[in-house]
């Protein structure tokens, strides 16, 4: 990526001299043009989104007006002075930004009282923050559960609130983004109650149509600043496909060396050369495993080097996270294997390389992760290591799909009733809902209120709706989609709490017999108590990892829309999915070789969500030469591959969606393939699949047909989580089936639609409510 020329611009005249002095004391001569323009809009009272590249100084664009206003006590209606609220999607980013603002405001003396307020904040500090801090850094979760329900104790802060900073706003997509949108509406409502109308300042390095997305998130008109005037060092980007091994997997399929093993080798080599680097991994377990492998290999050369590599992921205790963050900033750590917790804006200066173990699910995340390297303007290296997966294989052989296409649009649906309902309850507990509030929360509010009354959650008295329960309404929902309290991971011998696992992920990650990694140490899960939300583990040294498998059935509740595809049909609507984890596989660390399968007895879970499905007729099957003996395998293979390819067209991860294929489905009475959203009420993925179905299924057919294997492999039609053990699968049948289906596909309109406007959607890269494809 060649350097970009930029031009300097002077600060707007209204920015105080003290702020200019502080900026210069931090080593910054003057802002780039986009920084000054964004600061000017904010000071004029306009909400603004800064959508420029990674390391382009977005934080300075919003800190300038924030610091300028915090210095001037006359901006607030009380003696406390003006206040500002900063929201980050992760605790690490909030802590990092707090360090930055303290460094930047140090020349200003004690006028800026900044503090982090999150679940890790000691209770003795919280009262001081409520009463005296004028710049509070937190996350949407704490705003939802801690600040808004306790708004009378925050009245002084809210009454003086001048700015709300929403950093890395592109992460607020899909179900999570829809929740955050409603949390921000609740915040605006309470601010109005106290006489404040804060300006929203949003920032994102990777967003399409940023003003539109920011407007939907906040419910306000937002000005866009997207012309990036910052300089940029050269970034060399490598696409790396692991080699085939001599081993064979399920059904004799060839097995590639795992992306985990390749990434661990790269991290080892970079560390030995003294190059500071981060390896991004899609799962918590993967981060732990890569750090363990790298440490073992480094120890064979130099034991001191092994101590300079570590893992960083969610689920650690607060003191563990803070220690790792300090070691990373000080340079004590040379290499880090991390989940996307470090993808977002954390200032890791001096990185020479980034290794990405597996496509992270969206182009937005890919560029965010790659942008961590070379943040001080120097050249850098980024390497995408492909997993043995249809999408990863497709991308390394079609680089234009990465480098010649823009980042995905951000979509959220605040009107999703599964999202809106609990926030209406929370808002009613905070302050009784009135008819004047209906417009703020969206058009679906009026229809939902009678349902909440019927469920005896709300009660209407005169002109307002009141919360009726003793329980806290904010506890009705986990905005990250967890669906229950986290499962505590406890060491049996000592009773020590190792960390937590999201409730929705417990069935797949801490089931009995699962291998659990924590801080480079390996544990085996001895029992999982779902009622008490506790998993008991003990130290062990297995030579394998574990992968859970599940089965899924699906029923159609309502068909919203359907269009002919030749003799078949493509449909979109509401479905109910029943999912059950039934077993787990043991796989060798490095090779991925399957060592065995163990049955599990876990309760089924149901999900009402949105799905896209397509059917084929007997005539189409006859033309494709597909008889009853291969029909199930052809449908199953097409289902697996289409799930693997959908993240290229909808901003989702393979694990955010699921699928079912049936030779004769009772609701359609035809051979049918379903792909559904893995979140209650839907998240926009299936809708996007419906609108881009021709392009999506064409790419799916191409990925299967171009794979070099004979009968199917993980690079085309095999799924790592298939509840039926990838049986039956028929590769050539899937190609013929998709060929005859696509012959009748309508032509998509410009923008990737087939008869309607398309949308995108996404969620966090490791959401707790994930589902997976089944047989």
Automatic annotation (TrEMBL):
It comes from the Bacteria. Residues 746-775 are annotated as: Disordered. Signal peptide: none annotated. Residues 39-225 form the Helicase ATP-binding domain. Residues 262-418 form the Helicase C-terminal domain. GO terms for biological process: interstrand cross-link repair; nucleotide-excision repair. This is Helicase. The lineage of its organism: Bacteria, Bacillati, Actinomycetota, Actinomycetes, Kitasatosporales. PROSITE patterns: HELICASE_ATP_BIND_1, HELICASE_CTER. The keyword Glycoprotein does not apply.
